[in-house]
Each structure stands twice: as C-alpha cells, then as structure tokens.
Amino acid sequence: MTNYSREQTREYLIEKYESLSKQERDLIDHIFERKHIVRNINNEFDNQLTVGQRVADKVAAFGGSWTFIMIFASILIIWVILNSVILAQLKAAFDPYPFILLNLFLSMLAAIQAPIIMMSQNRQAAKDRLDASHDYEINIKAETEIAKLHEKIDKLREKQWSELVQMQQEQIDLLTELLAEKKGDTGM
Asked: Does pTM top 0.90 for this prediction?
C-alpha cells in the first residue's frame, strides 16, 4: 500500500470514527485499550439524583407497598367507624355519611401521589434505558473478545498442525535413514 492510500484510509477511518456517537467511540476506545467496560450503573444513576427525586422515589416505594395499603385501609375503617357509629351516636360527627370530607382528602392524596409516582416511573424507565445501553456495550465487547479468542485459537491450532507435520516429516526422515542404514548393514 502506498503512503498516499494509507493516508486516505487513515483519514477515512478518522472521519468515520468522529461521526460515531460518544458512546460508540468510548466503546471502541475501551476495546483497543483493553479497558474494562463494566461499571455499576445503579450507583452512577443514584449519585445524580436530586433531593426531590430521592423523595419521590421513597414516596412511590412506600405508596406501592403493603404497609401503605394496610395503614391506609386502617385509617379508612377508623374514619368510617368514628363518623358512622361513635360520633353519630353523640350527634357530633364531623364527616357524616356519605363522607364528603373523606372523599376530598382521598382526591387530594391521589392528585399528589399520582404525579410523584409517574416521576419515579419515568426515572426508572431512564435507568432501564441506561442499563440496556450498558448491557449492549458489554455484549459488543464480549463478542469482540470472543472473536479475538477464536482467532488466537485458530492461529494456535495452525501452528500446532504445522509443528506436528514438521515433527512427522522429521520422524519419516529418521525412519528413512534407519531403513537405509539397515539395508546398508544387511548388504555387507
């Protein structure tokens, strides 16, 4: 290859390399430099969360737990019994049946809880995309490393075959010499 065509090839490869995304360039750099790609995505992602995002995740985690359901059901049962039975007998019920105040509180809770849970789900989806991207990088590197190993094994096998053929040829030559010597010894 001439210097001119080498330079053209180099410029072409650099141009193609620079047109790749940062993620793809980093992956290629990791492969050539034989660096590890594996990292803890969860820690990286969690370290970038703001206080509000952390609170939203905690609220969403608690709001979707059996503990929350049990506490919430207990409060509802106590509210209904208190206003329907105990305070109704004393004519002091602050939220008599049909429990309009309770419905207002439930609506407000749902109005606040729903966006918080959606924020947490959106963040989880972003984290899942980051995990998938990282898995893709690892899979590409693993595939590349496996291909390199196959190539090394093939070269090793070729080398061993050529060594075996050479050893066999040496053994044939030695046997031929021995036969020639034996024929020479018997012919005396």
From this structure: no
